[in-house]
């Protein structure tokens, strides 16, 4: 266990046997040995999606309504359950230790109620690359922001888990919550249901707020980096700063073009 771990944080929170029995030491060892393969996964991912996109130019789009519905619903269910379990520990830390400790604590990686879900959250960033297959096979528009954020978040998640990076508890709790709403939206649209445009706008807004929150958290970590109770590693920190600042710019640009641009056009007409 790391230097800042407080055994009192292992307060029982109604964890299940399968959560208690999960071997987080073996999981972390596996990630430490394999995290660099995220660069290989990223390369294969780019070759596959752009290769399929090129091939599909002369083909009719596939009708993947059922597979897409099942895919999106599965990720909705996973995100919801994982979010609930991670938030359970987060709520305990906020109420008993305060905000700073909720950011700096590494107990998310070892506590029975969250350790399994933190590992699955890390692996889910690899699984989520599958989202792009549905885009290219259905001949939908593939944007830079889509594949860029999929690759970068996977690398950051695996690197963060390897280092037991502080702040990742908040990252997982918030991101899983946003993904619950996002994949629920994808599930509804895959079913052919008409969802108000305001729903999609709300999701994009929540993603921007999420990124701004993570940037703010990194600012706090700069002030806390000399605190022994808040382990700080520059490589992971710099990767996260690079991701969040670029994503903020990309998502704000996407929001303005997609929603505000359409509003201006409608008013002009």
TrEMBL record:
It comes from Malurus cyaneus samueli. Its main location: membrane. Keywords: Fatty acid biosynthesis, Fatty acid metabolism, Lipid biosynthesis, Lipid metabolism, Membrane, Transferase, Transmembrane, Transmembrane helix. It is an enzyme of class 2 (transferase). It is found in: Membrane. GO terms for cellular component: endoplasmic reticulum membrane. It holds the Pfam family ELO. This is Elongation of very long chain fatty acids protein. InterPro entries: ELO_CS (IPR030457), ELO_fam (IPR002076). It catalyses: a very-long-chain acyl-CoA + malonyl-CoA + H(+) = a very-long-chain 3-oxoacyl-CoA + CO2 + CoA. It comes from the Eukaryota. The chain crosses the membrane at residues 38-56, 68-95, 116-137, 143-161, 173-193, 199-224, 236-256. GO terms for biological process: fatty acid elongation, monounsaturated fatty acid; fatty acid elongation, polyunsaturated fatty acid; fatty acid elongation, saturated fatty acid; sphingolipid biosynthetic process; very long-chain fatty acid biosynthetic process.
